[in-house]
User: Which sequence fits this backbone?
């Protein structure tokens, strides 16, 4: 069963998922701290390059299946035009101001 973004526990993670699914790069970027970092399958990546390739240029979409760690860890059926669909895990570090300073993703 999919969890709608509006029903996610952490409001910043909910906005992150909503921005990805709406293909709203401006809203997505506004959620990130200026020095935000990320990793994919345990390897740090260039955030801007990865986000363009894996989310916005390839029509990324997240169907959230579960959440834990007060909503800062989610398991997702993720799909994009480059890789098709796969089950992925996402973990977020969120600042007190409600911005993502780091996210980590990889196959679940």
Assistant:
């Amino acid at each position: 069963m999919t969890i709608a973004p509006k029903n996610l526990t952490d409001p910043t993670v909910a906005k992150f998922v909503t921005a990805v699914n709406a293909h709203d790069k401006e809203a997505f970027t506004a959620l990130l701290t200026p020095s935000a970092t990320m990793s994919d399958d345990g390897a740090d990546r260039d955030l801007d390059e990865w986000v363009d390739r894996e989310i916005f240029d390839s029509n990324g979409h997240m169907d959230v299946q579960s959440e834990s760690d007060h909503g800062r860890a989610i398991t997702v059926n993720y799909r994009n035009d480059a890789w098709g669909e796969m089950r992925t895990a996402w973990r977020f570090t969120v600042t007190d101001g409600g911005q993502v300073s780091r996210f980590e993703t990889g196959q679940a």
